[in-house]
Amino acid sequence: MNNQMEKAFEIIEKINAAGGTAHVVGGALRDALLNREIGDVDIATSLEPMQIIDLFEKVIPVGIEHGTVLVRYRSESFEVTTYRKEEGYEDYRHPDKVAFIRSIEEDLARRDFTINAMAMDHTKEVIDPFYGKQDLQNRVIRAVGDAEVRFKEDPLRMMRALRFCSQLKFTLEESTFQAITRLTHLLEHISIERIALEYEKLMAGKGYKKAIEICKDVGLYRYLPVFKEQPELIHHVPKAALKNFADVITFYCEYSSIFSVNDWVKQWKLSNQVKREAVQLSSAIEQFKKGEKQAWIVYKLPDPLISRLIEVGFALGYEINGEELTDEHRKLAIKDRKDLAFQAEDLLQVYKDQPKGPWIGKLLESIEYAVVTNQLPNHYQSIKEWIIEWNLPETD
Ligand code: ATP
Ligand code: MG
After folding, report:
1. In this structure, which residue's CA is closest to atom 22 in ligand 1?
2. Are 24 and 39 members of one domain?
3. Are residues 79 and 91 in the same domain?
4. What is the pLDDT of residue 198?
5. pLDDT tens digits for 167-179?
6. Is residue 395 part of a domain?
7. 315, 332, 349: which is the final residue of a domain?
8. For a pocket test of ligand 1, which of 111, 113, 176 has the largest count of ligand atoms closer than 8 A to its C-beta?
C-alpha cells in the first residue's frame, strides 16, 4: 500500500479513537484498486468539521460549509469531509443545501459513478454498495442510481463520465450512455470553466481517442465552445494525447480558419498563460511549416515549450524530429539576446555618428539570427567585422 494511503489510515485510526468513523473514498481508492498511481487521498468521516479541527494539530478550513477541511498530517494534505447528502439542485447548479449525516452508505449514494462510490476503512475492507469493483473489472462507467436523474442533478457529470472513459480507458455502460445521449443539452447550464477542466483531462487521457469517439456518438461536442459553431473540427483527431489546453488549441487552430487562438481563449474562458503558450506554439508550428531553421525556432521558444512543440507536432502528424530539435536546443550558441558578445552600446560605438533609432533593434536581431543559426560566431571582433561589411544601417 502506498505511503500516502498508510498516512490516511493513521488519520482514520485517530478519528476512530475519538469515537468517529472514517473512510478513504473517491478517486484514490478507485485508482489504488486499479493499481494506478494515486492522486490526492480524500477521507470521509462521521465527525463534523469543528471536531476534526479539535482533533488534529494543523487544519485548514477550506470549505467548512460543505463539511470539508484540509488536514496537514506528516507533511501531506488530506481533504477530510463530513458524510453528507446534497439537496435542492436548482438551475443545475451546486446543491443549495448539504446535510451532514451519520452513514457512509448514504454518503456514497450521492457520488457520481459506481467506481467512485466505494469506501475503505482501517480494516481495509471495501464498502461497495453499488458494485463498483465489478464495474472496475468490466471497465465501465456507470452512474450511481438512475443515470437520467443523476445527470439532471448535475450535468457536469456527463463531462466527467467522458473524462473518466479517457483517463481509465473505460467505456460507458449502456443506460449511462443512453441518458447522456438524451441530456447533452443540459451542459448549457454548466459554467465553461468547469467544463474546460474536464475537457482538458479528457484530451490528456490515455483513452482520448475512444473518449472523442463517444463524445461524437452521444453528441456532447455540440455543446462545447468552438465545436458548437464548427462541429466538423471534432473529426480531426490528434495522433497523440495533448496534455495541456494550449496544446489542444494549437492543434485545432491548424484546421480552422474561423477560430483563432484568441477566440478559443475567449470562448473557453481560459487564462492568459494558456493564451501566451498557444500563441507561441502556433507561431513555432507556422515557422516550422515555412521551413525556418530549427535552431531559430527553438531559440525563440521558452524552454518548457520545446517538448510541448514536439508533442503537438507529433499529434498533428508533422515530421518534427524531436531528438534533432532537442539537440539543436542543447547546442544553441546563445540562449538569450543578452548573451550576445555584441550589445547595443557596442553598435553605438561603431556608428558614433548615427542618431539612435529603430535600426539598432533591427541590426541586433539580424546579428542574433546569424549567431543562433551558426552563420556567425558569437565573438566581438567577428560580429564587428560582419556588420561593417554587410549590414550598414540605412541612413535617411
Ligand atoms: P481525480 O483523480 O481526477 O481527482 P476523483 O474521482 O478523485 O478523480 P474528484 O473530482 O477529485 O474526482 O472528486 C472526488 C470524488 O467526489 C469523486 O470520486 C466522486 O465520488 C465525488 N464527486 C466529485 N464530483 C462529483 C459530482 N459532480 N457529482 C457527484 N460526485 C462527485
Ligand atoms: Mg480527486
Report:
1. 111
2. yes
3. yes
4. 98
5. 999 999 999 999 9
6. no
7. 332
8. 111
